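Encode chain A's predicted structure.
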Amino acid sequence: METARQRHALLVGGMGWTGARVVDEARAHGCRLSLIQEADNITNHHRSTANRVIAVSDLGDTDTVVRAVKAIHDRDPVDYILSVTEFGLVPAAVAAQELGVRTPVPVDVATLLRSKSRMRDMLGGHPDLAVRSHRCFTYEEVVRAADDVGYPVIVKPDDAWGSLGVRRVDDATGLRTAFEESDDIGCAVLVEEFLEGPEYSVEAFSHAGRHHVLAVTRKVKLPNFVEIGHVVSGVQSDGDSAVVRLVTRFLDIVGLTDGNSHTEVIVTPSGPRIVESHNRPGGDGIPYLVHLATGINLAELAVAVPLGLMEVPPPPPRPTGAAVHFWVGEPGTVVTVPRVPDAVREQCTEVTFTARPGQRVSEVLHSFDRLGFVMTRGATGEDAFARARDIVESHPFEIAPAVDDELESERLDRVRRYARGG
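Encoded structure for chain A:
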């Protein structure tokens, strides 16, 4: 391995455990790190640990991010540019391309994975990866697309995130509402065939074209597809093998050769099918769950492997398990948060409440609408999830029901805010 000679990495956005750990691991490996981050998401930890922190108002504003990167690079040449958050992926790739700096994923691949319809078009020539779909801009196009695909269909925004605006529609009577919900977000609408079966995500790290699959995560979802649980173990079963083979082939087809990836798959009766993929680690604390279950730190790999400071470790032969379960609630106002006794907390890795007394609770439209979570470890992922689920279910939030239509009037503003990433 090469020695660390104060390499300079630049991180475009990174929140939560993963963002903090990229900063930590850069320092641990003797690498300087500059961070470009939206002002509201800069933490004391970022300021005290990163070598440089630059605030921007909107991480998704590519021109602004590129200018910030160029200003840093002019003063202190950058060796590597990366992002571990959705809205930073394309700006990081564009900046790297314009400056001739190394980055894990080029602009064309990052842009492809941000657009669900473009990804579907690319996969259309591969029967085991193809999913019938149409990109639509008007309600009339949505009607024709649904007739062509055949009910039930999924109607969703082309480039939103966090399960925002995703709806199953069983017949024509539900199309108008589903179209309007997706159209409110301000992007094209995707109509695609409904894939029935359990959903998983594959957490992988690629280097020089070799894909290292490190964990498979089972999803637990509400009827509107917002995720309320993740169950992580290592790669173990024959079923996992079919999913892993599909995902590694998919990564080859789309041209992802380096860096983190988080690919969602539904295992249908006729075999696994790709839902979507991202050239970043998963959200919802999944990288932390992977670390708990396997000992592998996806954030460390993101910064240390491409700079030649470490190699990708193999998955452990006998991984343990980890899981998270989220609290959700009916619309109203939080009266009290759950009272989780110390004896119960000792069974958990983390108990966090994101909602507070007096806070308005709205219809769950996005992952931002969840109220908190319990994270646990176990001999297997399913053992860990059962414990987390039991704790959530036996310690509910007290919520006073909504008594007016104010929540509904706030709905459109929330949808558009979530679509922008905040």
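The longest strand covers residues 210-221.
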